[in-house]
Amino acid sequence: xxxxxxxxxxxxxxxxxxxxxxxxxxxxxxxxxxxxxxxxxxxxxxxxxxxxxxxxxxxxxxxxxxxxxxxxxxxxxxxxxxxxxxxxxxxxxxxxxxxxxxxxxxxxxxxxxxxxxxxxxxxxxxxxxxxxxxxxxxxxxxxxxxxxxxxxxxxxxxxxxxxxxxxxxxxxxxxxxxxxxxxxxxxxxxxxxxxxxxxxxxxxxxxxxxxxxxxxxxxxxxxxxxxxxxxxxxxxxxxxxxxxxxxxxxxxxxxxxxxxxxxxxxxxxxxxxxxxxxxxxxxxxxxxxxxxxxxxxxxxxxxxxxxxxxxxxxxxxxxxxxxxxxxxxx
Length: 330
Ligand code: SAM
Ligand code: SF4
Fold this sequence. Notes:
Largest sheet: 12 strands, mixed
Strand order of the largest sheet: 7-8-9-6-5-4-3-2-1-10-11-12
Order of helices and strands: EHEHEHEHHEHEHEEEEEEHHEEH
CATH superfamily: Aldolase class I
Bound molecules: S-adenosylmethionine, iron/sulfur cluster
CATH class: Alpha Beta
Radius of gyration: 19 Å
Number of strands: 14
CATH topology: TIM Barrel
Strand content: 15-25%
């Protein structure tokens, strides 16, 4: 079984936001004061599992858990254990997660035991004061400890860094060297206009196409045919031991090869991160519709998956999505 959308893209990758809550408040992701959802609003673990089952039956092979911070969700390991058990009996091949890393010291061993072999850790700076500032109150030592614990447990890590104007633009080479020394891959991401935060997006946005051109003069990058199943374009250089990726939704659109859809913590299926349309599965599940009906709705949603995102950042245009990143997950 395969899920094919109206533009003939094969969709085999599901991202699930398991909570909108987080132990940090990154300035480009959230406002300082956030109104979080109540428990009844978000999907139960059973509801998440049921939705995943239906997607797997329809051809999803890879599931990424995200949030908010997925590791702050109660009983997250139980969900991962259940999903991991499906790998033997279904087409599901990989479960992974995107995390801020603060709770990895506690969870890395359990993650590995439950089949997580690869994770993305988000880290925008390696400077403790800057980290504290960008996350509004975070302690970077927790992340360093978490990364070491994950590596000790043979979990492969990729660092995700959002490049932010006047914040980490001058730290890019340092980040490349730091990850290269640790032999960890690194991906840079452009700021996307997901709902308003306290700072205007045009004061945060850096064009990764420009960043790439500057870096290329130093590193003489060679493009490689490597993919983690996501939109990053990867490069190597004789000067580093790792792979460097660039995700540039605004300056280098990659929608033609999009293979994913996203479930929000409230059960809304977003066919595109950069569009506002969704299909609400929470109501469908809570009204006791059958799995066949759920699958029909998933197919319907795939039929209306848009051709491309609608992101725009500029002096006059700031087209925001009507939800913060922590709702749909990155
Ligand atoms: N809390 C986890 C973390 O930070 O890895 C998972 C959720 S977080 C929303 C997922 C990713 O989205 C992170 O790498 C984060 O840096 C990124 N992100 C958040 N807001 C963003 C924005 N407006 N534009 C681009 N990336 C963003
Ligand atoms: Fe939390 Fe991740 Fe958003 Fe930062 S980017 S506030 S860690 S959800």
